[in-house]
Design goal:
By secondary structure, the chain is an alpha/beta fold. It has one domain (16-303). The chain has 14 helices and eight strands. The strands form two sheets. Strands 5-3-7-2-1-8 form a six-stranded mixed beta sheet. A hairpin with a 4-residue loop joins strand 1 (39-43) and strand 2 (48-54). It is elongated and about 65 Å long. 31% of the residues are buried.
Length: 308
C-alpha cells in the first residue's frame, strides 16, 4: 500500500534533522525490501518506525536474501525485538523440566482426548491416525505434545531453513545493536505456563495442528513463499498459519488489555527522534485489529505492502 507519509505539510520545508531521519528511514526500507519480506514505514513529526513482518516455518525452498535485512538493522538507531526472550535457568532445573515434559507426553491415567475434543474434532484426529499422520494411540496423548508431533511431521517433509528471527538475533549479538527492552522471563513462570493448567487449554493448539496436517506440505510451502513475495493475506489465511499463534510459547489467553499495552508501546516509539526498526511477527502486525490497523485508526499513515 503506497500511502503518503505524515510530516510537514506540502510546500513547507522540514527541519534538517527531520529530513535526515526521513532519508535514513527511506534507505532502510529500500534496503530491507531487497530481502523480499513485508516491511512498512510509519512516520510522525519526530521519528520514523520501520516495521518488519516475520514468520516461523520458512522452508528451505523459499528464496529470500537475509543480507539486506541485516543491513537494514545495522542502519537503524535502535531495534525493537520482543520475540527475543532471555530465560534464566540452572542446569539442574533444566534437567527437571525435561523429565517433567516427558512425563507430560501422555494424559493422566483415566483421561483421553475424548474428554476434551468435540466429536467432530475427535473424528478428524482418528482419520489422521488412520492415514499415518498422527501416532497410534493418539487419544491418550497430551494435546500439546500431539500438536508438536503433527507440526514436526510436516517440518520433516518440507525442511525448514534458518528463520528470520535467527538472523535478527545473530545480527543483534554480532553488531551489538541498541535494543528497545528485551523481554525477560523467569524459569518459574516459563515452567508454570508450560506445565500448569488443564490439558484443555492446549486444545486450540491441537486443532490448528490438525489443520496444518490435513493441508499438508504444499500449504506450508505456499505460505512460506507468499511471505517472501509480500502476499500478506495469503500468509494470514493459510491453514498452516494459526498453529504458530495458538501453541506454546505463544499465549492464546492474552486478552485485549495485554494487546492494548503492547500497541501503546509501539506508539511510544513514534514520540522520540530516532529511527527504530521493529521486528515483529507478521500475525501481530497485520491481523485484523493488529498493529497496522491500530496505527491507521490512530491517524498514522502507513507505507508498505497491502495487508487488507
Amino acid at each position: 500500500m503506497g500511502l503518503a507519509l505524515t510530516g510537514a505539510s506540502a510546500g513547507t520545508a522540514q527541519p534538517a534533522s527531520d529530513q535526515a531521519l526521513e532519508q535514513k528511514a527511506e534507505e532502510i526500507l529500500v534496503v530491507g525490501r531487497r530481502s523480499g519480506i513485508p516491511m512498512w514505514r510509519v512516520s510522525s513529526g519526530k521519528t520514523t518506525l520501520v516495521l518488519v513482518g516475520t514468520i516461523d516455518g520458512v522452508t528451505k525452498s523459499t528464496s529470500w536474501d537475509p543480507a539486506p535485512l541485516v543491513a537494514a538493522l545495522r542502519m537503524s538507531d535502535r531495534v525493537m525485538f520482543p520475540q527475543m526472550h532471555a530465560v534464566a535457568v540452572s542446569p539442574f532445573a533444566m534437567i527437571g523440566y525435561l523429565a517433567k515434559g516427558r512425563r507430560q507426553s501422555s494424559l493422566p491415567k483415566g483421561q483421553t482426548l475424548r474428554d476434551f475434543l468435540p466429536p467432530q474434532q475427535l473424528q478428524r484426529l482418528q482419520v489422521l491416525e488412520k492415514r499415518g499422520l498422527a501416532p497410534k494411540g493418539a487419544e491418550r496423548k497430551h494435546p500439546l505434545h500431539l500438536a508438536f508431533g503433527l507440526r514436526d511431521n510436516i517440518k520433516e517433509k518440507v525442511g525448514y531453513g534458518q528463520s528470520p528471527t535467527q538472523y535478527v538475533t545473530g545480527a543483534i549479538r554480532k553488531h551489538k545493536l541498541k535494543l528497545v527492552p528485551i523481554q525477560r522471563s523467569s524459569a518459574k513462570s516459563f515452567a508454570a505456563d508450560l506445565f500448569g493448567g488443564s490439558p484443555s487449554r492446549h486444545i486450540p493448539c491441537l486443532i490448528d495442528a490438525m489443520d496444518m496436517a490435513e493441508a499438508g506440505p504444499a500449504a506450508v510451502t505456499a505460505r512460506s513463499q507468499a511471505w517472501a513475495s509480500r502476499q500478506v493475506q495469503q500468509v494470514l489465511n493459510s491453514p498452516a498459519e494459526d498453529v504458530y499463534h495458538s501453541c506454546f510459547p505463544a499465549d492464546p489467553r492474552s486478552g485485549p488489555a495485554e494487546r492494548a499495552a503492547f500497541h501503546a508501546g509501539i506508539k511510544r516509539l513514534l514520540q522520540e527522534p530516532q529511527v527504530t526498526v521493529a521486528v515483529l511477527n507478521l500475525h501481530t502486525l497485520a491481523r485484523r485489529g493488529g498493529i497496522l490497523d491500530d496505527l491507521t485508526a490512530s491517524g498514522h499513515q502507513v507505507r508498505g505492502p497491502a495487508w487488507r
